[in-house]
Design a protein that fits this description.
The complex is a heterodimer of chains A (204) and B (199). Chain A has 204 residues and is an all-alpha fold. Chain A is built from 7 helices and no strands. Classes of the chains: A mainly alpha (204), B mainly alpha (199).
Chain lengths: 204, 199
């Protein structure tokens, strides 16, 4: 069994944390400005969650240790907290929750398999659905049904489905996130492999 | 240094307790929490309360109150020329207090901290690896921006962005991550040469 983390592993944890942090600080801020707050959690949150998961899961292929994604998430959160945009609690909670769920997903399935990456992506990106419940509860003390009703209102406007199909809308919003999560996990596994092959080719 | 470390941990602990309190507090109890937070700021970091003098802060903080008053519930209370809703006013007020509490909690946790101090804090607590990784990440940001610009310009000049947008996005990620990993290898060699051991 390997004991203690090597310098290379710590450097790579920092590097992937920096990549995710840079994406959050630049693209995240631009998207938050570009889209109105009503579509925020759905569009911006989903896009940022997918990008974050892609980077963190690629990182797992280079630091094959339990807890590496969680540490990448910690680094990203700290960078985000010290970003010029100021401290924003929402993205920080989102990043930590997503990295925890990715870690959990990768723990449940065989190491390095496409299935484990798909599950990790599914769990992490699905958090985006529940994030709103947590944040609205924390910020405004809103209950489950108030948040669900607001989510359905926003979803109905976005997907152009009448509000009376309450459960269909909620299911659809969750399904979109699940699909995006699975796709992100599979793409991350593929991209990571491609990067590893490219580096090997350059070395030889 | 030791005293500084202790104060940072105390701040983080206080902020975590206040955050837990905020999650469970409802109604007028929130005002008590707000008072405790202001008192803590006066005690630990009075300069942070300058936040209350900024117009932008008040615009942000009072927005829920104004929206709540205008949107929710029947308009049963008259304030001069305006008719407002008591229910909306109260709902907006608690939202407003929550927002201010949350801002103060984060100021309390992050106040007086910088990335350099945080790295020092990790080192002193036996988390040398995490401190090192954070240092690498913080110093890599400028390099990553440079690498991204170079890769993006290369793809643009070759016309890849216009002809194959999806493929060029994939190539962009692969090229940036590969170049960053190469740079990471250089950092590993430099740290090893200096006898750094994170174990």
């Amino acid at each position: 069994m390997k004991r203690g983390w090597s310098v290379r592993e710590w450097v790579f944890v920092g590097l992937f944390g920096a990549l995710w942090g840079a994406a959050e600080m630049t693209l995240g801020s631009v998207l938050h400005l570009a889209f109105p707050p009503l579509t925020d959690t759905f569009l911006v949150g989903l896009i940022m969650a997918c990008i974050g998961c892609l980077i963190a899961m690629c990182g797992r292929l280079f630091v094959d240790r339990r807890g590496s994604i969680l540490l990448i998430g910690v680094i990203t959160s700290i960078l985000k907290a010290f970003s010029p945009g100021g401290v924003k609690i929402g993205p920080i909670i989102g990043i930590m929750a997503e990295s925890l769920l990715m870690e959990l997903g990768l723990m449940l399935m065989p190491r390095g398999s496409y299935l484990s990456f798909a599950l990790a992506g599914l769990m992490a990106v699905s958090w985006n659905f529940f994030h709103r419940f947590v944040m609205m509860g924390l910020f405004y003390g809103a209950g489950f049904f108030e948040v669900a009703a607001k989510m359905v209102r926003d979803g109905s406007r976005l997907l152009r489905i009448p509000e009376k199909f309450f459960f269909l809308l909620l299911g659809l919003l969750l399904f979109i996130r699940i699909t995006a999560g699975v796709a992100t996990g599979l793409i991350a596994r593929g991209l990571g492999g491609q990067i590893q092959r490219r580096l090997r080719r350059e070395d030889s | 240094m030791r005293t500084a470390d202790k104060s940072s941990w105390v701040r983080i602990l206080l902020a975590a307790t206040a955050l837990a309190g905020l999650a469970f507090c409802r109604g007028p109890v929130l005002l008590g929490l707000l008072a405790v937070l202001v008192a803590l700021h006066l005690l630990l970091q009075p300069s942070a309360l300058l936040l209350f003098t900024r117009l932008r802060f008040w615009l942000f903080a009072l927005a829920p109150l104004l929206i709540g008053t205008a949107v929710f519930g029947p308009r049963d209370l008259s304030l001069g020329f305006f008719k407002v809703s008591t229910q909306g006013l109260l709902a907006g007020l608690w939202m407003c207090v929550r927002t201010v509490c949350l801002l103060l909690i984060f100021q309390l946790a992050m106040g007086g901290l910088s990335v350099a101090r945080l790295i020092g804090l990790f080192h002193s607590r036996g988390l040398r690896g995490l401190g090192f990784a954070l240092g690498v990440a913080y110093n890599m940001l400028a390099t990553l921006s440079e690498i991204s610009c170079i890769v993006l310009n290369t793809l643009r000049l070759r016309g890849a962005l216009r002809r194959h947008p999806l493929l060029s996005l994939r190539l962009f990620v692969v090229a940036v991550v590969s170049a960053a990993l190469r740079h990471g290898e250089d950092i590993v060699h430099a740290a090893t040469a200096r006898g750094f051991d994170a174990r």
